[in-house]
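Design job #97: recover the sequence.
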């Protein structure tokens, strides 16, 4: 007969099922604090710098760890498939592209819980810029300047096509003029940064800015994946020309960096990454000219009031990572002078520092690419509608064709 809770225990006491209720008890152990802090404890520590940094680390670690895991798995899978399965010396599947595709699959099939948001934003908004700035140590000021001079006429031509042709196409298709202009500057200059900097200047609303960002994101992502192998065919593996093409034909800084890194790793051509990076930074600097021009035209259409340009932060016109890139090229230039870099280091130590900075840069860019894949939701792109989508697609194609023609004719 089974023993009930009300019946006296007889025989073996461990046969009593009521004992299972107490398996999670701390009976016999000293009291321990609850792992979660009380509201009073949190208030008492509010404002302490170390406490806030400790909390920030807990907020961003899940997203950073997820992006790092995807980048590592993608790199190992690409290498394993290329070398282990097919026996190639270099994998035909780039790890960066696979990381983006894995991120897209996770975001749009499994979904992405909110706990990962803060870390993924850190990867895209901070680590990406750190990676781009560190790329500057690969070039001296003279080398970067030579690339910039070669890229300048191509950049001007590509931006001109985007601004004049795309805005005209938008009028033809009946798009609002502000939305057409946002798509044009995003496609022609520097992607989302240009859109976010131009939007307040022309009094664009949130929907218009969101539509323009979505257009630049989807077509820039497609260009990131398709243009590196296409450029390899179009320019017969000429790394400098390929760098010029990638730097002018693709929209956002993150997308250019990803495409150039993909090409450099897959085809063993780091020069393409250097040229594409400098070319893209030259494009970014055109915000200094285009946004005041746009502000002036908008002011003429709507006189009175304070010019929105006066409310635009300087770092939206000249992003901090551009200044960081120039600073790193200056460091490289000074370090390369004389037999002992900075008069202190051995040449071998200086080379190790350069290699380490380059590797850190590549790691930051790989994390950013995985985060971009995780941050792209196909569901958000459905709200675009046919006309903005068509303008974005044609704009991306026109800038790509203009870049190809200009590189062929000038470079």
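Job complete. Output follows.
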């Amino acid at each position: 007969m089974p023993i009930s809770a009300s019946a006296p225990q007889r025989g073996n006491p461990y046969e009593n099922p009521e004992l299972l209720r107490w398996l999670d008890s701390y009976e016999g152990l000293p009291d321990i604090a609850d792992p979660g802090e009380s509201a009073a404890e949190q208030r008492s520590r509010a404002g302490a710098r170390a406490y806030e940094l400790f909390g920030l680390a807990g907020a961003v670690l899940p997203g950073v760890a997820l992006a790092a895991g995807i980048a590592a798995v993608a790199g190992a899978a690409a290498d394993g498939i290329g070398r282990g399965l097919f026996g190639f010396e270099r994998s035909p599947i780039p790890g960066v592209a696979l990381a983006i595709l894995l991120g897209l699959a996770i975001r749009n099939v499994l979904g992405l819980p909110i706990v990962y948001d803060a870390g993924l934003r850190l990867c895209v908004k901070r680590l990406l810029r750190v990676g781009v700035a560190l790329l500057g140590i690969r070039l001296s000021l003279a080398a970067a300047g030579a690339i910039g001079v070669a890229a300048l006429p191509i950049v001007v031509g590509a931006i001109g096509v985007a601004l004049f042709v795309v805005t005209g196409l938008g009028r033809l298709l009946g798009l609002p003029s502000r939305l057409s202009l946002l798509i044009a500057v995003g496609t022609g200059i520097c992607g989302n940064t240009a859109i976010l900097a131009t939007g307040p200047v022309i009094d664009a609303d949130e929907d218009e800015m969101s539509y323009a960002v979505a257009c630049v994101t989807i077509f820039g992502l497609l260009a990131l994946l398709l243009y590196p192998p296409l450029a390899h065919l179009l320019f017969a593996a000429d790394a400098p020309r390929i760098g010029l093409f990638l730097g002018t034909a693709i929209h956002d800084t993150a997308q250019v960096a990803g495409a150039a890194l993909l090409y450099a790793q897959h085809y063993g051509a780091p020069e393409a990454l250097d040229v594409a990076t400098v070319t893209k930074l030259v494009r970014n600097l055109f915000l200094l000219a285009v946004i005041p021009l746009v502000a002036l035209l908008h002011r003429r259409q709507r006189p009175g009031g304070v010019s929105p340009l006066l409310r635009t932060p300087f770092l939206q016109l000249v992003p901090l990572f551009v200044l960081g890139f120039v600073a790193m090229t200056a460091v490289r230039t000074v370090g390369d002078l004389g037999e002992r870099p900075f008069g202190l280091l051995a040449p071998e130590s200086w080379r190790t520092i350069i290699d380490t900075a380059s590797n850190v840069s590549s790691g930051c860019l790989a994390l950013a690419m995985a985060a971009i894949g995780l941050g792209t939701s196909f569901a958000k792109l459905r709200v675009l509608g046919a006309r903005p989508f068509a303008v974005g697609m044609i704009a991306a194609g026109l800038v790509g064709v203009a870049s190809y023609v200009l590189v062929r004719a000038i470079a």
